[in-house]
Amino acid sequence: ETGVTQTPRHLVMGMTNKKSLKCEQHLGHNAMYWYKQSAKKPLELMFVYSLEERVENNSVPSRFSPECPNSSHLFLHLHTLQPEDSALYLCASSGPYNEQFFGPGTRLTVL
Amino acid sequence: KNQVEQSPQSLIILEGKNCTLQCNYTVSPFSNLRWYKQDTGRGPVSLTIMTFSENTKSNGRYTATLDADTKQSSLHITASQLSDSASYICVVSPDSNYQLIWGAGTKLIIKP
Q: What is the chain A residue with the closest CA to B48?
């Protein structure tokens, strides 16, 4: 285990649903990340939080809404998603030197 | 444009054989290069990280090389095992805090 946990591991939702992904890190890191991984594509950075402040927002549609209540927890709130949003969503955290440790991911399917 | 390209896209080898995966990058400035292993349906796990001044680094049966002049890296796997079946991703860090430039990965399959 890397010290980063994600729940749920699998999620199926309709386009009108609202759901949330949760990430927790037990490494004492100050930065946390959300990535999207689609089949055969490089990881896409979505959001970065450092000391609970959002420092990166890579042109992500507003139907994805992150929340970082403290340095150990990160959420990704989902609403009115599209089928093309189906992917593996990965959370990571990093300490010094930006070495990133990843959680196991949430496999999201949007019907 | 900052890019990381990996080859081959996929590779099948027999258990016990060696293999080498390639990574070419056009990232500038350059801070470090990492190799990650990602098992199917799991998050990536770091194998090695190399800075500009390092040209080789080993982690067990994995050996990474870096040629910063030609902007190429390779990952050599020795005496492959079935558990080596995974995607191997090359990642380059520019001189910034959070952005990493990710390759699409090489999918390696080890057959018994």
A: A99
The residues near A30 (Cβ < 8 Å, ≥ 6 apart) are A50, A51, A71, A94, A95
Q: What is the pLDDT along chain A (111 residues), one digit of tens a residue?
A: 679 999 999 999 988 889 999 999 999 999 999 999 998 889 999 999 988 888 877 789 999 999 999 999 999 999 999 999 999 999 999 987 778 999 999 999 999
- Go through B41-76 and write b for each residue having 16 or more CB atoms within 10 A of its CB, e for each that does not: ebbbebbbbbeeeeeebeeeebbbbbebeebebbbe
The verdict on a CB contact (< 8 Å) between B98 and A45 is yes
